[in-house]
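TASK: fixed-backbone design
INPUT:
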């Protein structure tokens, strides 16, 4: 709904003033005068002078009256886009308050697409006109044959269709045989067709879909957890709710964690709604994003499927939000404004008074506890679609039946791969380590090759012949001799990455078709899509993959999943390490046996008795989750307590430490709140910046944001120093 409240026209003096919020690091909104002849609604996107420049901002409220009206500069232009709704403006303020950021920083996430504020350029096309010239070249004749149907086409299209240069249609225009017509700009995306029948839903699916449908029809805020094992049809169920929302004229936002997921998902969406959704993430071409932003604001775009930043699109008739894989850590942004898109999506849904569906086979503990507390409603899909069984999960005790030296596959896993190959089935080997080896060291002096800019080892990428830092991207060729002791041929690779695993697989299974799926071996979403297609067609026997391969994909012929190092990710001081490892391995396991053929999962572990392995093998997730909850509650950790991470960084370590220590002296401590640190961060050097951390821990009833503001507002950052506030941190590096 467009905003109805406008500033009163005020026929008499004094002239009206308004506050304009600018997406710039300035203290707050500034006052501007409204020119006599202009109607400026609240939320309008405007151009205003600032110093010697002109900037874009949003009309945020009545003028403050602090500055003499005569001294105020006027708004120069109102952009031809609908104003930000009142809900959207409230959303900006609440996100800012929650994340302890400036409203201007949040607004910047909304106004990132300045091109979208300009109306799209009309299309100049040509169509048949008048008599053809006397003598026709073959090229001109071909063009006229194509244009004989009287339709208007752009010169580029004509040239393409006729197989001629662009000058040919232009020449015909000059000769008077074609004339220019101006066509309205194209739609950003074709509208989805919500009338198409979905599949017949099973009993459980039907119950869940009806329940979601009711929530959509009611158009009140409600948070619903749609939980179901992988393959139980959650996507089909929320597609049904999307269709419902579309039929009643509402816009829909679907947040997805991985860009790589989108190919299969988008194809499915297109099959269901006869049109692709509008897609929004940083990998989408700017022109396309411009069209999506504008289409969302004008209401032309009805469904957006996007990464976390899609949450800041200016929907005007939002009727439903879906967050798929709600537990996924990539919904968290941990620089700039640190926000969790899942949580902020719940906030947005409540402000918009619309339902939100959180989907997962492995919901986060936060969400489960919200269900326990009665804040979220839970809908269950207990079985896999069409009766596919859940895979059988086994732990392989690497202390007893490990791999040979320098190899990574246990005999048991290797046998399973052999059996799958013989049966014409596919296997997935999961190892969340890109490259060839995570560490390179010198056999002679023990020197380890580290990044000069980060506290991290350099990772060998053998087929590119490089050593690379996964944090800052710096790389160098693999040296012939140790850079420390100069001994030639002394460097050895330690530990496996996917490339090294591929070497072992190629050696053992020379006839198998093997491919690697990792974010850096693939060029982009198109390559992921192509590989997914080869998997679907059965052109790949063994897929070796990192996290990109773990999630969402549906490969009917995949029956064996081998987790090469199930213990990876359990170390370190992260309070969510167990939960996250369990979720991830459960997801990976869920790739196996999604149709008729039953699946088998092998977890290679040095700790088969670990609660995570036990939970995966026994399938007793309830007990595992109860233990996790108990542990968190005892420790006062989220969701039973609240955390905020503070990172101070800069190029001079002494300055960083001094500021961290100074902050620590004034840190919030008292009943229900405490501050730990300062200490050098685990990643104590990142891209050439030294990093120190503090961690604030508070009870659930404490307003941690208020404490942070009081504590940190007076801080003046000098030189290279930066201070990052991360409320509800997921990363402790
Ligand atoms: P989830 O999202 O829970 O992992 P999906 O929605 O992806 O599950 O469903 C798994 C597979 O089963 C998909 O190929 C989907 O098309 C199919 N499927 C699920 N429900 C039905 C149904 N009612 N009719 C036909 N196919 C279905
Ligand atoms: Zn680095």
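OUTPUT:
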């Amino acid at each position: 709904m467009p905003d109805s409240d406008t500033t009163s026209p005020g026929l008499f003096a004094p002239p009206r003033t308004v506050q304009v919020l600018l997406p710039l690091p300035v203290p707050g909104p500034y006052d501007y005068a409204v020119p006599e002849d202009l109607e400026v609604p609240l939320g309008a996107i405007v151009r205003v002078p600032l110093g010697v420049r002109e900037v874009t901002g949003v009309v945020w409220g009545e003028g403050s009256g602090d500055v003499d009206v005569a001294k105020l500069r006027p708004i120069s232009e109102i952009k031809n886009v609908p104003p930000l709704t009142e809900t959207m403006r409230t959303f900006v303020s609440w996100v800012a308050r929650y994340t302890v950021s400036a409203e201007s920083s949040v607004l910047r996430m909304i106004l990132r697409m300045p091109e979208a504020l300009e109306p799209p350029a009309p299309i100049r096309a040509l169509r048949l006109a008048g008599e053809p010239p006397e003598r026709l070249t073959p090229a001109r004749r071909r063009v006229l044959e194509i244009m004989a149907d009287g339709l208007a086409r752009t010169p580029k299209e004509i040239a393409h269709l006729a197989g001629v240069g662009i000058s040919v249609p232009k020449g015909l225009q000059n000769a008077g045989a074609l004339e220019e017509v101006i066509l309205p700009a194209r739609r950003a995306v074709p509208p989805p067709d919500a009338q198409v029948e979905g599949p017949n839903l099973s009993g459980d699916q039907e119950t869940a879909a009806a329940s979601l449908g009711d929530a959509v029809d009611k158009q009140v805020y409600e948070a619903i957890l749609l939980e179901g094992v992988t393959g139980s049809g959650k996507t089909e169920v929320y597609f049904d709710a999307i269709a419902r929302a579309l039929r009643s004229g509402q816009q829909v936002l679907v947040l997805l964690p991985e860009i790589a997921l989108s190919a299969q998902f988008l194809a499915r969406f297109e099959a269901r709604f006869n049109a692709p959704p509008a897609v929004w993430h940083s990998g989408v071409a700017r022109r396309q994003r411009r069209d999506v932003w504008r289409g969302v604001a004008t209401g032309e775009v009805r469904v957006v499927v996007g990464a976390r930043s899609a949450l800041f699109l200016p929907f005007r008739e939002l009727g439903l939000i879906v967050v798929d894989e709600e537990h996924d850590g990539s919904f968290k942004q941990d620089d700039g404004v640190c926000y969790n898109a899942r949580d902020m999506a719940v906030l947005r849904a409540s402000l918009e008074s619309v339902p939100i569906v959180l989907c997962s086979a492995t919901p986060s503990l936060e969400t489960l506890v919200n269900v326990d507390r009665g804040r979220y409603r839970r809908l269950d899909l207990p079985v896999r679609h069409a009766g596919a069984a859940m895979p059988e999960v086994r732990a392989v005790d690497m202390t007893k039946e490990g791999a040979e030296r320098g190899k990574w596959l246990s005999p048991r896993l290797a046998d399973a791969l052999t059996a799958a190959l013989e049966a014409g089935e596919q296997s997935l080997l999961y190892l969340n380590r890109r490259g060839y080896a995570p560490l390179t060291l010198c056999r002679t002096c023990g020197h380890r090759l580290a990044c000069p800019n980060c506290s991290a080892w350099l990772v060998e990428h053998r087929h590119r012949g490089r050593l690379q830092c996964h944090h800052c991207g710096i790389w160098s060729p693999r040296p012939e001799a140790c850079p420390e002791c100069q001994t030639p041929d002394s460097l050895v690779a330690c530990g496996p990455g996917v490339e090294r695993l591929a070497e072992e697989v190629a050696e053992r299974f020379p006839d198998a078709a093997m491919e690697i799926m990792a974010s850096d071996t693939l060029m982009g979403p198109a390559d992921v899509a192509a590989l997914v297609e080869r998997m679907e067609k059965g052109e790949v026997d063994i897929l070796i993959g990192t996290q990109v391969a773990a999630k969402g994909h549906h490969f009917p012929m995949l029956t064996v999943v081998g987790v090469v190092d199930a213990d990876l990710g359990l170390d370190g001081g992260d309070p969510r390490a167990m939960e996250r490892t369990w979720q991830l391995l459960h997801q990976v396991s869920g790739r196996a046996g999604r149709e008729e053929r039953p699946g088998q999962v092998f977890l290679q572990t040095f700790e088969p008795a670990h609660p995570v392995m036990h939970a995966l093998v026994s399938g007793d997730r309830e007990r595992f989750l109860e233990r996790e909850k108990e542990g968190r509650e005892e420790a006062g950790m989220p969701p039973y307590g609240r955390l905020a991470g503070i990172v101070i960084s800069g190029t001079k370590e002494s300055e960083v430490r001094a500021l961290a220590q100074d902050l620590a002296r004034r840190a919030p401590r008292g009943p229900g709140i405490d501050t730990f640190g300062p200490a050098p961060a685990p990643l104590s050097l990142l891209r050439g910046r030294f990093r120190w951390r503090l961690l604030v821990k508070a009870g659930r009833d404490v307003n941690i944001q208020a404490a942070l503001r009081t504590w940190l507002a007076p801080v003046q950052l000098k030189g290279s120093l930066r201070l990052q506030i991360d409320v509800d941190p997921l990363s402790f590096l």
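COMMENT: Residues 1-14 have pLDDT under 50 and may be disordered.
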